[in-house]
Amino acid sequence: MSRKLLIRLVEAEYSITRLNVGSPLPEWLPGAGFWSVSSSREEMTLVCRAARVPTGVISSNGWRCLRIEEHFAFDIPGILSSVLEPLSTAGVGLFANSTFSTDYIFILGSDLDKAVAALKAHGHEVMV
């Protein structure tokens, strides 16, 4: 059985940006809204509001953010998959990012209507 969740569209457009491993964190990264840094041996990935990313930085732009409004313990299975499955079935590509308390799902703005419809059809409440 899949979980039924409350999901909220976060205001603003987001960018997913790539920097070289070992790059210092740019001064434009922190600010209002969600932002995140992930680093691996291949790259450093930054997520933040698109308006803060300078021209010339390698970025994928036009992302919208959906936030799961409920908080669950780490050992509760199926939370993220209950969002990812209907999006995948609807042909919506995504970029997921988790925090200690919840999950954020980034979808291209051009897929927003399709994503919202898929999530609602799956029984989720989506606030846009």
TrEMBL record:
UniProt xrefs under SUPFAM superfamilies: ACT-like
A Pfam family assignment: A9CJY8-like_N
Domain A9CJY8-like N-terminal stretches: 13-55
InterPro entries in UniProt: A9CJY8-like_N (IPR049447), ACT-like_dom_sf (IPR045865), CASTOR_ACT_dom (IPR027795), CASTOR_mTORC1 (IPR051719), UCP008459 (IPR016540)
Stretches assigned to the CASTOR ACT domain: 60-120
Name used for this protein in its record: ACT domain-containing protein
Organism: Rhizobium quercicola
Lineage of the species this protein comes from: Bacteria, Pseudomonadati, Pseudomonadota, Alphaproteobacteria, Hyphomicrobiales
